[in-house]
Design goal:
Layout lengths: L1 H6 L14 E7 L23 H14 L3 E6 L8 H10 L3 E6 L7 H9 L4 E5 L4 H8 L4 H15 L3 E5 L7
Parallel strand pairs: 1-2, 2-3, 3-4, 4-5
Helix pairs in contact: 2-3, 4-6
Length: 172
């Protein structure tokens, strides 16, 4: 049995009791950055990304399967126009929703307010070092300063659990 489980770890989780408790969803590969370390090769929306009705159906399925917590990321998840509808549908199914953003768009206080109003559990921004190294890795000058504005807006708005996500490289 041990050899079988090593070959196929899912044998440890009988289909009748397994549930996807924690899920990470690349909501879109569309992105407004060209990060040198991107593992998703993000940039443009892919033709096979879920349509809005398909995304809502997936939300229902995940909720019905017992998903407890889901993290939205991308690309840049806030470039997907229906992120609020997706968040609301997941929450209606008792799924707690987090998000990881590159922080460029959230320098807009209005978007940060919408994030709080949407009830996201955790709002995380990718920070990859201090200004010079971060901007170089993100291939976008000014991105570090926009992240700082995003965090300032979030603390002013209140009610958000904030986090930082980083990729360790030789540069930082």
């Amino acid at each position: 049995l041990a050899e079988q489980c090593l070959a196929d770890p899912m044998l440890l989780y009988p289909a009748s009791t397994y549930k996807p408790r924690f899920v990470v969803w690349e909501l879109t590969l569309r992105c407004n950055m060209q990060c040198r370390h991107c593992g998703s090769d993000a940039g443009t929306r892919r033709g096979h990304e879920l349509e809005p009705d398909e995304a809502l159906d997936l939300c229902d399925q995940l909720g019905d399967l017992g998903c407890e917590r889901l993290t939205l990321l991308g690309g840049e998840p806030f470039l997907r126009e229906d992120w609020e509808a997706i968040t609301a549908r997941l929450q209606a199914k008792a799924v707690r929703v987090n998000v990881i953003s590159n922080g460029w768009l959230t320098a807009d206080a209005g978007l940060v307010q919408r994030i709080r109003d949407a009830g996201l559990t955790t709002f995380a921004i990718s920070v990859d070092g201090f200004r010079e190294h971060h901007d170089a890795l993100r291939s976008r000058e000014g991105s570090f300063d926009r992240i700082l504005r995003s965090y300032r807006h979030a603390t002013r708005v209140g009610g958000l659990s904030l986090a930082a996500v980083t990729t360790a490289t030789r540069l930082c």
